[in-house]
Amino acid sequence: MARGDPTFDLFVIGGGINGCGIARDAAGRGLSVGLAEMGDLASATSSASTKLFHGGLRYLEYFEVRLVREALEERETLLKAMPHISWPMRFVLPVHRDMRFEGSTPMSKLLSTVMPWMKGRRPAWLIRAGLFLYDHLGGRKILPATKTLDLRSSPEGAPLDDRFETAFEYSDCWVEDSRLVVLNARDAEARGAEILPRTKVVSAERTDALWRIMLEDDAGRREVFARALLNAAGPWVGDVIRDTIHAESREKTRLVRGSHIVTRRLFDHEKCYFFQGRDGRIMFAIPYERDFTLIGTTDQEHTNAESPAECTEAERDYMIDFVNTYLKEPISAEDVVWSYSGVRPLYDNGASSASAATRDYTLKVEAEGGAPVLHVFGGKITTYRRLAESAMQELSPYFDGLPGAWTAGVALPGGQFPVDGVEALTSALRRDFPFLTPEWAGRLVRAYGTEAREMLGAAATKEDLGRDFGATLSEAEVAWLMDREWARRAEDIVWRRTKLGLRLDKDQVAALDAFMVARADERKLAAE
Ligand SMILES: Cc1cc2nc3c(=O)[nH]c(=O)nc-3n(C[C@H](O)[C@H](O)[C@H](O)COP(=O)(O)OP(=O)(O)OC[C@H]3O[C@@H](n4cnc5c(N)ncnc54)[C@H](O)[C@@H]3O)c2cc1C
């Protein structure tokens, strides 16, 4: 289908990781794809995660072995496809007698039956056994195995209270979640998909073999048609079923809010802490954006997708108290420089607590004798690529001769270099653009990978990059983000395409916003 033709093979509702991942996969199989996102790409849950490609160690206590295995297997596949925005990370898990299971996990129930004298304690041998499984379930080749640390003599023990003497250290990976979304959208577009941010799907109805879809953006409303519809609306998946499609569905979502706080940097190494609480929950403390520490997350029932996801004072204080049981130098609310919150759109499997609700995904196709719609419930950033493959598998009966899975091993834009190649890429960039400081070059490589040099163009000096918006954000970079990555407002750049919001002050952000609005207006006028 040519661009502009209003009939798509597949129309995707939602520009989070699942919508963009599916759009990329479908476009790469030759389908004509449209995607509408009512806000900015990744403006909802997919920019508010803990940002880990992880198996999910704690899900083993729920015996979610299928999910953990799939996620573990995915880590290295994903690392290779995007070595700029994701990297291996070591996790330090201190062990102590005080640590308890959450009472409702299948593992804690089993242990309290066979070993009642444990009284809900999460014993070190069980954690070690879990980590053994974690090391071996997912066919690890790049990531190093688990080892035991003596916290009394290692740098990882220095920021911790003296009562923590031993820890296990294991592997998972970091990922820049909102960049992952935008790079999937870019690759989908490069393969022919039409990506429409700031466009809401206001209604969709079946007209025999097609879906008639009403879109709304700043310019008004317009209709498009599609042979299949994909509901990847995340927390709004139920609203889309009920209010947009007016369909019947027995499936339910459970909305669980998770918040994070960011503090000044709390420790001087690059490893992450995995803290266990007395209430059975866990908390990560992760080195973040060089000068900060990211702490999270909470698990709070969230009433509906429309209510804003915000970190409450109670959540903030809970996280502060949690990490203070571990830290030698306690932190307070004064140390918090930023917080964010997101809503997990979990599949409602009837679990008792928010923490226990399954993190696995469920796909439901409904066709009712006409054009099909596929609803996506749940999922994790880590399994987005596998979820997209499963979605295509579910839709394959409706598309004769649909080619097979292809995304494993195919790099995202800027990711065509080896997993351990960031240093070499950064040095080469500094050699060719000597005005870049090491931090600046490092940031550009982590954001744009091999495309960083294309973004810098023929610049020989800092001034050649145009206006300086502060914290190494140049006009050339802003133009790149507006022209290639659909950024429109300062917020899109400072909190999603980058995290420079941590370094820019209010006036700098306002100046950037004014520049972006004026630039977009100029472009619009020129195009008319
Ligand atoms: C606190 C927290 C921590 C997490 N940590 C991790 C982690 O470390 N690792 C991991 O693997 N996973 C993690 N997850 C899970 C992961 O973030 C989510 O599963 C994933 O982001 C969901 O993506 P999505 O595309 O389904 O939803 P979303 O990202 O919410 O995208 C749905 C999009 O649909 C759009 N939309 C809705 N209705 C319409 C409409 N009518 N028209 C147009 N657009 C519409 C919305 O604006 C939204 O952008 C975490 C989740 C949370 C909340």
What does this structure look like?
The chain is built from 14 helices and 18 strands. By secondary structure, it is an alpha+beta fold. Strands 3, 4, 5, 6, 11, 12, 13, 14, 15 and 16 form a ten-stranded mixed sheet that branches. Strands 1, 2, 7, 8, 9, 10, 17 and 18 form an eight-stranded mixed sheet that branches. It starts with 6 loop residues before the first strand and ends with a helix. Flavin-adenine dinucleotide binds next to helix 1, strand 2, strand 8, helix 6 and strand 16.
Keywords:
528 residues; alpha+beta; eight-stranded mixed β-sheet; 18 strands; 31% helix; globular; binds flavin-adenine dinucleotide
* Biggest beta-sheet profile: 10 strands, mixed
- What does the radius of gyration come to? 23 Å
Helix content: 25-40%
**Uncertain spans:** none
State the total count of DSSP E strands.
18
**For the residues shown, what is the average pLDDT?**
93
Number of contiguous helices: 14
Percentage of β-strand residues: 15-25%
User: What gross morphology would you assign?
Assistant: globular
The distinct ligands, each listed once, are:
flavin-adenine dinucleotide
Computed structural class? alpha+beta
Query: What is the terminal-to-terminal distance?
Result: 25 Å
Helices, strands, pairings?
Elements: E1 7-13, H1 17-28, E2 33-37, E3 52-53, H2 65-81, E4 86-95, H3 106-114, H4 124-137, E5 147-150, E6 166-175, H5 177-190, E7 194-197, E8 200-207, E9 210-217, E10 220-231, H6 237-244, E11 253-264, E12 272-276, E13 282-288, E14 292-296, E15 300-301, H7 313-324, E16 336-347, E17 361-366, E18 373-378, H8 384-395, H9 422-432, H10 438-448, H11 452-456, H12 475-484, H13 490-497, H14 506-527
Parallel strand pairs: 1-2, 1-10, 2-7, 4-12, 10-18
Antiparallel strand pairs: 3-6, 4-6, 5-6, 8-9, 9-10, 11-14, 11-15, 11-16, 12-13, 13-14, 17-18
The structure holds flavin-adenine dinucleotide.
